[in-house]
Design brief:
The complex is a heterodimer of chains A (143) and B (494). Chain A is mainly α. In chain A, 60% of the residues lie in helices and 10% in strands. In chain A, the strands form two sheets. In chain A, strands 1-2 form a two-stranded antiparallel sheet. Chain B has twelve helices and 21 strands. The chains are: A mainly alpha (143), B alpha/beta (494). Chain A binds chain B through residues 1, 57-59, 61-63, 65-66, 68-69, 72, 109, 112-113, 115-117, 119, 121, 123-130, 133, 137, and chain B through 151-152, 327-330, 333-338, 340, 397-399, 401-403, 405-406, 408, 411-416.
């Protein structure tokens, strides 16, 4: 499996830092022109701390596995970090609509089950996964 | 009575009401079904009571398609036929298997499940099983073990019952020996189907033994019960009077060869929480008329098969150990990290038995210049799957994975290549479709009574007549069709 370079990885960690802190960020994406993200004016207050959310969702060891899965998914589909991030919009919207990390975890559990029920599926190297959990893996990889 | 064709004088002509070629599950069942009707029956068997290498060698041929087996595997040329080796898996076809499915070309039998059901009940007894009960609610109640839930309503549990397994050659040998109106000739090979001058009736079977004894059988009705490959072989090789072979005006004899592709370990299921999966193991249950061994298998609901345009399948599950790398770039243990609060470390493997669609190019042909020791042309089997079959199998397993995910049971990996399942395609030893049943004489060789469209007194028994293969092992249906043919011949000739 191809692994991302250190340079790219740092950029992606910064990227999630933007998500977490809700601050504008310039991202030098892998194989991409730099892309500027701007926090929308109507973003909800008290946004979720993504790093904390992902840590709680996957656990410390599981987070590394999630990163591997997210990395594989992005590499296999030749997604730049920008594209990979944008593809997680549905799941991020669900997270951002939650009051706090605890509620977000509950909402994500429900979303994953709903994905399977509604056949929002993503094949990752033969694994039938829910769209939301792949998004979380991508966010873990970006983070 | 049991006789040896080698004891016949060369040139002898035997006569009977019915002559059956082949003493496997179909031939023996039919002979028994005719025994009490006062009809004179001759049952011809190429082999002996035990394995005979010289007779078995008559099966050899070549494989030009999927070649994960050889032509002298899976079928056994002796009294009792391949029931001498079968594992006893029994399950009837489902009502929808007999119906025309718009998404499967050439599907739709000329008979319905309801017409065959009474004969399934007879077949159940013939394979030494007590009750013809396959509905999951009754079996599950008798078992007391839980079946998997399906929150999306896509997944269903089906069952197999297990015959002891009945070795027809052993179980029914004494019955046939005692039957004065049934003459069983061992070492008797049908070499040619000889037609009348108008080509619309069989005049006689021309027979020969490996020791060189030649004899003929004349009868009012003739039945080929030689197996899914040999039935077609004999019809195609009997081409002295009709170049395309006997009963082949539709050009379907030898074509549409179907198997049940078996994919062992094609999917790996990582469990997320402890579950009682014992219903999916072999276990014994008590039904009203006796004890039976059953096993649950997974399948998709018929409405899902229809809406998705999928063929049927069943999947057995068994606990396994998965080594790193076995599931490709993402290991099972990595995926377990997605299963929050996973409380179970077990991994299961899925063993899938699939239906394949009738495919004209999947076929048996006669080899040129290659004959067996009786002078019969050997065959080439070009077993093929339509690409839609492997695509459909991939989708089917994806839907199983979705249901396991939706129920919180875990995640499923399937070996894939693009949108197709990618795994070694093993055979089930089930040879079907080569003398297919169709209402339309231009689409198949036999009608709903297993009578050849072109030849009024020639019938075919066994899985060669299957219009579609379903996802059920064929023996129970072979026996049921033979029982039904027995009733037809009793009415026709009695």
């Amino acid at each position: 499996m191809n692994r991302v370079t250190t340079t790219c990885r740092l950029a992606r960690r910064s990227f999630l830092g933007w998500v977490s802190a809700s601050l504008p960020l310039t991202l030098a994406a892998c194989n991409d022109e730099p892309v500027v993200f701007t926090k929308p004016d109507d973003a909800p207050p008290g946004a979720i701390d993504y790093a904390e959310l992902l840590l709680q969702y996957f656990g410390e060891d599981g987070l590394r596995d999630a990163e591997v899965i997210g990395n594989y998914y992005a590499q296999f589909n030749q997604l730049s970090s920008t594209e990979a991030f944008e593809a997680t919009a549905h799941t991020r919207a669900a997270i951002d609509a939650s009051e706090d990390v605890a509620h977000a975890l509950t909402d994500l559990d429900a979303l994953v089950l709903e994905d399977f029920l509604e056949l929002r599926l993503i094949d990752v190297a033969g694994w039938t996964l829910s769209s939301a959990e792949v998004d979380l893996c991508v966010l873990a990889w970006l983070g | 009575m049991l006789l040896d064709a080698n004891d016949l004088p060369t040139g002898e002509t035997l006569t009977a009401d019915v002559c059956i070629a082949g003493a496997g599950a179909a031939g023996i069942t039919l002979a028994l079904a005719l025994r009490d009707a006062g009809l004179e029956v001759i049952l011809l068997e190429s082999g002996d009571f035990e394995d005979d290498a010289n007779s078995q060698a008559l099966y050899r041929g070549s494989m030009s398609g999927i070649d994960t087996w050889q032509l002298d595997d899976h079928r056994w040329r002796l009294f009792g036929g391949s029931t001498s080796r079968w594992a006893g898996w029994c399950r009837p076809m489902q009502p929808y298997d007999f119906e025309r499915r718009s998404y499967i070309e050439k599907s739709g039998w000329p008979i319905t499940y309801a017409e065959l059901e009474p004969f399934y009940e007879l077949a159940q007894t013939r394979v030494e099983l007590a009750d013809f009960i396959y509905d999951i609610d009754t079996i599950q109640a008798a078992s007391g073990r839980p079946v998997l839930e399906s929150p999306g309503g896509r997944l269903r549990t089906e069952i197999f019952q297990y015959s002891p397994p009945t070795r027809f050659g052993v179980k029914y040998r004494a019955d046939l020996d005692a039957a004065e109106n049934v003459r069983v000739y061992l070492h008797a090979n049908v070499r040619n189907v000889d037609l009348t001058s108008s080509h619309d009736e069989v005049r006689r079977f021309e027979c020969v033994t490996l020791q060189g004894v030649r004899f003929n059988v004349e009868a009012r009705a003739f039945v080929l019960a030689l197996g899914g490959i040999e039935n077609a072989r004999l019809l195609l090789a009997s081409n002295g009077q009709v170049p395309a072979g006997v009963a082949n005006s539709s050009d379907s004899v030898g074509r549409y060869f179907m198997e049940h592709p078996h994919y062992s370990g094609v999917s790996i299921w990582v469990l997320s929480r402890p579950m009682d999966l014992s219903f999916y193991e072999f276990h014994d249950i008590d039904l009203p008329h006796g004890r039976v061994r059953v096993q649950g298998v997974l399948a998709l609901e018929p409405d899902v098969l229809e809406s998705e345009g999928l063929l049927d399948f069943t999947a057995s599950i068994s606990e396994t150990v998965v080594e790193p790398g076995e599931t490709g770039p993402i290991d099972a243990e990595q995926v377990r990290s997605l299963l929050r609060r996973a409380e179970d470390e077990r991994v299961y493997s899925l063993y899938v038995r699939a239906e394949q669609r009738p495919f004209r190019d999947s076929r048996i042909t006669l080899r040129t210049g290659d004959v067996d020791s009786l002078g019969m042309p050997r065959v080439d089997l070009n077993w093929q799957l339509h690409p839609d079959d492997t695509r459909g199998m991939r989708r089917a397993l994806e839907l199983v994975g979705a249901e396991l995910g939706a129920a919180g049971f875990g995640r499923l990996w399937t070996s894939t290549k693009g949108d197709e399942v990618s795994w070694l395609t093993n055979p089930g030893g089930h040879h079907m479709g080569t003398v297919r049943m169709s209402e339309d004489p231009s689409e198949g060789a036999v009608d709903g009574d297993c009578r050849c469209h072109d030849v009024a007194n020639l019938y075919v028994a066994g899985s060669a007549v299957f219009t579609t293969g379903a996802a059920a092992n064929p023996t129970l249906t072979i026996v049921a069709l033979a029982e039904r043919l027995g009733q037809h011949l009793r009415e026709e000739l009695g």
